[in-house]
Amino acid sequence: MNENKLIIFSAPSGSGKTTIVHQLMEKYPWLEFSVSATSRAPRGAEQNGKDYHFLSADEFEAAISEDKFVEWEEVYAGTKYGTLRSELERIWAKGNTILFDVDVKGGLRLKSIFGDRALAIFVMPPSVEELRRRLVGRATDAPEVIEKRVAKAETEISYAEQFDKIIINDILEEAVAQTEKTILEFTNR
Ligand code: ADP
Ligand code: 5GP
């Protein structure tokens, strides 16, 4: 059975998670992202319902009270992110395998809820210095934001061992191939 499986990706920002996952999603159309809800405002070209379900702080609180989340976290001070139950139903109804891009705590929480139905993957940068270089090279964040992300990475990396699989993203092609193999084994596709 391929349905009802979930694959969780967590990583320090800048590890290359998005790059890896997008390559695999192009190849395997049965992989589909769960679109999270967030209380932050859209950035750049982000679209409501595609990148996130953008909620006001009040709407987010209401969704918590109405038990609409499988899990939620205040990932950054004052900003909440959460996995909507409706996303799981929407994606499984199509027979697709759900991908999650969540912070490490959310990832481990989802793993504890779904157990063997979930595969929790941690994408590890080769070093914190290389992580900083990639964030600088990506050029999407201000220097102080980069420093915050790098500082957070140290804590996030300390959770890596609790994941089912650690993918070290040093050489991109190798990281993609390892991730692909891990996913195909897990889903029996
Ligand atoms: P994340 O989604 O984990 O925040 P991204 O996928 O946005 O990270 O990658 C961060 C930056 O690092 C991007 O500019 C990306 O092109 C680059 N990158 C990703 N993987 C590698 C790699 N193996 N070697 C060098 N640069 C990489
Ligand atoms: P962004 O750069 O998009 O503002 O920050 C996203 C951060 O929040 C990342 O660490 C991402 O993994 C995390 N995140 C996104 N959606 C969720 C979610 O639904 N639950 C949790 N726990 N974290 C999320």
Q: Say how many strands there are.
A: 9
CATH class of the largest domain: Alpha Beta
Q: Work out the strand percent.
A: 15-25%
**Structural Rg:** 16 Å
Brief description of this entry?
By secondary structure, the chain is α/β, with parallel strands linked by helices.
Structural summary, described in words:
With 189 residues, this protein is an alpha/beta fold. It has two domains: 1-30 and 96-189, 3-Layer(aba) Sandwich (Rossmann fold); 36-94, 2-Layer Sandwich (Guanylate Kinase phosphate binding domain). Helix content is 43%, strand content 22%. The radius of gyration is 16 Å and the shape is globular. The mean pLDDT is 95. It binds adenosine-5'-diphosphate and guanosine-5'-monophosphate. The site of adenosine-5'-diphosphate has 14 residues, from α1 and α5.
Any key phrases for this structure?
189 residues, alpha/beta, Rossmann fold, Guanylate Kinase phosphate binding domain, 2 domains, 9 strands, 43% helix, binds adenosine-5'-diphosphate, binds guanosine-5'-monophosphate
Which helices and strands, and how do they pair?
Layout: E1 6-10, H1 17-27, E2 31-33, E3 37-38, E4 53-54, H2 57-65, E5 69-76, E6 79-84, H3 85-93, E7 97-101, H4 104-114, E8 118-124, H5 128-138, H6 143-157, E9 165-168, H7 172-187
Parallel strand pairs: 1-7, 1-8, 2-7, 3-4, 8-9
Antiparallel strand pairs: 3-6, 5-6
Helix pairs in contact: 1-7, 5-6
This protein binds adenosine-5'-diphosphate (ADP) and guanosine-5'-monophosphate.
